[in-house]
Amino acid sequence: MRVLMGLMVMAVALVASADENAVKYRQHTMSAVGGHMKAVVAIVKGEVNHKDDLAVHASSLAGLSGIAPGLFGDDAKGGDALPKIWSEPDAFKQRLDAFRSAAVDFEAAVGSDDPAKLGPALGALGKACKSCHDNFKKE
């Protein structure tokens, strides 16, 4: 009986650990999104002279936007994510779709070398990020 009880405790601990790891992975990945966004803004504002890096950041944001939906599985509940991510999946999916679309559009704007496209595309990307944070992330 003690062996069975010990196995059950270990199983619960492994599930909790898996959930904690999923939350941490999500947070690390979304922090990477934030880091790329901050770098992009610094470049666009002329705070740093790394214009040649803009395409790398844009590509990274587009790539990360593609994996974002997989970061919010049932195993990743908790952390700074509000529970309504899982109770309102359609609304959350719309925000993730908007992020994906805006990130891909931003990457295209950077690739176009048309400065007139850059500002609006970055603005739309920032708006998509803010919309999700305002509605689905704890402060």
How would you describe the overall organization of this protein?
By secondary structure, the protein is an all-alpha fold. The chain has five helices and no strands. It has a single domain, classed as Four Helix Bundle (Hemerythrin (Met), subunit A), CATH 1.20.120.10. α2 runs antiparallel to α4. About 6% of the residues have low confidence.
Defining key terms:
mainly alpha, Four Helix Bundle (Hemerythrin (Met), subunit A), 5 helices, 77% helix, elongated
What is this structure's SSE topology?
Blueprint: H1 2-44, H2 54-67, H3 84-87, H4 89-112, H5 115-136
Short description:
The chain is mostly helical.
Percentage of residues in DSSP E strands: under 5%
Distance between the termini: 45 Å
Overall morphology: elongated
The structure class reads mainly alpha
